[in-house]
Automatic annotation (TrEMBL):
Top-level division of the source organism's lineage: Bacteria
Job of this protein: Catalyzes the conversion of N5-carboxyaminoimidazole ribonucleotide (N5-CAIR) to 4-carboxy-5-aminoimidazole ribonucleotide (CAIR).
Signal peptide: none
UniProt name for this protein: N5-carboxyaminoimidazole ribonucleotide mutase
Catalysed reactions listed for this entry: 5-carboxyamino-1-(5-phospho-D-ribosyl)imidazole + H(+) = 5-amino-1-(5-phospho-D-ribosyl)imidazole-4-carboxylate
Organism per entry: Neomesorhizobium albiziae
Family, as annotated: Belongs to the AIR carboxylase family. Class I subfamily.
Classification lineage: Bacteria, Pseudomonadati, Pseudomonadota, Alphaproteobacteria, Hyphomicrobiales
Pathway noted in the entry: Purine metabolism; IMP biosynthesis via de novo pathway; 5-amino-1-(5-phospho-D-ribosyl)imidazole-4-carboxylate from 5-amino-1-(5-phospho-D-ribosyl)imidazole (N5-CAIR route): step 2/2
Annotated residues for binding of substrate: 14, 17, 44
Keywords: Isomerase, Purine biosynthesis
A biological process term (GO) from this entry: 'de novo' IMP biosynthetic process
One example GO MF annotation: 5-(carboxyamino)imidazole ribonucleotide mutase activity
Amino acid sequence: MAKQRADVAIIMGSQSDWATMKHAADTLAALGVPYDSRIVSAHRTPQRLYEFAHGAKAEGFKVIIAGAGGAAHLPGMTAAMTALPVFGVPVESKALSGQDSLLSIVQMPGGIPVGTLAIGKPGAINAALLAAAVLALGDDALAGRLEAWRAEQTAKVAETPSDPA
Ligand code: RP5
């Protein structure tokens, strides 16, 4: 059976990043955006990274979400090898709570952009929402689903606080 076309590639430096990056995957799934998730390490599998980044456009990906922690070179190195939009998610590290990941990802030199999100789960969710927003520019049905997702989120916010159950 032919593999389903995926618009978004979710890549991460390690299996240990999946607990965070799964939130990006779940958010894309909720929006009906096809994605593929892979472990690609800038340090431990550099050849896999090279092949992925150089082949990403030909594979049909339109947006890449890259999550990594610590010395988080994955998003930047990916962006160095493809002109596709790359959103970087700083994964929360044990040693420095993700501040290392954030600074590694955000301080790119001019000319090689990585759209950097918040540390951890919020960043993973928002990377997926941004990826969907980019794709929605050319997909009215997805734009409608994104709008509905936002409206549902708004409707869930109570007007007054309540005690926990
Ligand atoms: C990075 O090192 C990964 O992105 C991960 O966040 C971090 C730790 O990796 P493991 O030692 O848990 O595999 O490359």
